[in-house]
Predict the structure.
Amino acid sequence: MSLKNFPLFRTGIGQDSHRFLPADSSKPCMIGGIIFEGVPGLDADSDGDVVYHALCNAISSLTGVPILGRIAVELCRKDGITDSQVYLEKALQTLRGQKIVHIAFTIEGKRPRLQEKIDQVKKKVASVCSLHEKQVGLTVTSGDGLTDFGCGEGLQCFCVLTTVEAMVLPDQIGHIDKK
Ligand SMILES: [Zn+2]
């Protein structure tokens, strides 16, 4: 079988979690680039956006380029950039020929009320990634009081990322051809 022009699909996975700051903190709670009211911000050097960070990690799992561990740390410490959208934009550049087909997120947390802003988060992520909002999926769960997230101590997000390379040259998939 010739694999010339064979579309190469990849799946990436990423996770991130942060604890809430004390109730008297004035830091806004950012989730997927959207501010959620009624809860303190997340404890991180950056804005602590678990959705953007999970996506950065999913991208790193495909590219091998450490975004949160290296590039974001440099942006934060050297340039004082705490906006995780900037980290995500850097991460997206590292995908190069890999085109995003779909991004799926799931967030666990007792607070805030995530359900109310699901559509806003999906639209925001789609816009930053230059995707249609139907290419972004998001489910949320309260965690039922089981984990620290389910007890309202913080937030956890998982991300599964699917990419495709529209055209793969035979020499790039030689290891597949040999099988
Ligand atoms: Zn994080």
Summary: The mean pLDDT is 92. The pocket of zinc ion is lined by residues 16, 18, 44, 48, 50, 53 (CB under 6 Å). The CA atoms of residues 27 and 41 lie 5 Å apart. Residues 50-63 form the longest helix (14 residues).
